[in-house]
């Protein structure tokens, strides 16, 4: 009984590998141009930059408030929030 299950698994895996290798042979070469695209991407320098946003705290009338400030654009984000 275990032999039959084991043989079924091996047969199923063999069919899967065979079908995948067959499908790879049938794919046109125009779809497999990864290497030339990668070479072009390696020659270019890409620098990603995100905004620097931090909390700024202020005490007004004995109460502490916080507000987000975008240091990249030098602008406030949102309103003052009471900190408890």
Written overview of the protein:
The chain is 42% helix and 29% strand. It is an alpha+beta fold and 84 residues long. It has a domain at 53-82. It has a 3-stranded antiparallel β-sheet, with no helix packed on it. Strand 2 (63-70) and strand 3 form a beta hairpin. The longest helix is centred in the N-terminal third of the chain and has 25 residues, at 2-26. It is elongated and about 80 Å long.
Topology:
Blueprint (H helix, E strand, L loop, with lengths): L1 H25 L7 H10 L9 E8 L2 E8 L4 E8 L2
Antiparallel strand pairs: 1-2, 2-3
Strand order, main sheet: write it out: 1-2-3
Count up the helices. Answer: 2
Instruction: Sketch the major β-sheet.
Output: 3 strands, antiparallel
Query: What structural class do you assign from the helix and strand content?
Result: alpha+beta
Poorly predicted runs of 5 or more residues:
none
* Percent of residues in beta strands: 25-35%
Shape, principal axes of CA atoms:
elongated
Fraction of residues in helix:
40-55%
What Rg is obtained from the alpha carbons, in whole angstroms? 30 Å
Number of strands: 3
